[in-house]
Amino acid sequence: NAGVMQNPRHLVRRRGQEARLRCSPMKGHSHVYWYRQLPEEGLKFMVYLQKENIIDESGMPKERFSAEFPKEGPSILRIQQVVRGDSAAYFCASSAGTGDFQPQHFGDGTRLSIL
Amino acid sequence: AQSVAQPEDQVNVAEGNPLTVKCTYSVSGNPYLFWYVQYPNRGLQFLLKYITGDNLVKGSYGFEAEFNKSQTSFHLKKPSALVSDSALYFCAVRLGSSNTGKLIFGQGTTLQVKP
To answer: Cα separation of A47 and A58, whole Å?
Structure first.
């Protein structure tokens, strides 16, 4: 019974490149959340998606960041033209829903380093 | 605006002693409250949640938390600490009426249990 799978675990990019982070939710989960953890800080909400729909992107920067959760395949968080300030751990979480107070289950994260 | 405060960056306890990790919250409306634990280079693991009902909730690994509405607190407790409990602990809140399910996290508290 696999948990939330994120890949890659570590990603190194040079400034100006693109970063693609992938997240496969737990089996049976159709709700995906992305959070960012900066060094010495807590997690900050970025975006909440259901299959093929962005429900809440209030925490995502307006430029360079985008997220999708297609009908088939993993959820993708895409960061274009990365800058040093994008260096962080990015965590994906999934849940079976929101209506019956299902806890979110987290993956082990992708640690993004910008050179 | 919703917020969560964990007033202690670090808590040190001796093995076998009781532990408390503090959390206070600020929301307009009924809060759903959660505790997660994070081990190095790993994602967050769900410990317990408060939705409604009994103010004392029990969770994984012998942890429990007490919801106090008048003090807007949700402190995490364990009667007898283990060295293996040493980790980073996060308190989180979700607005009960929210349909997005996004979590607002505290800054985290490092628990150090010494033999």
So the answer is: 7
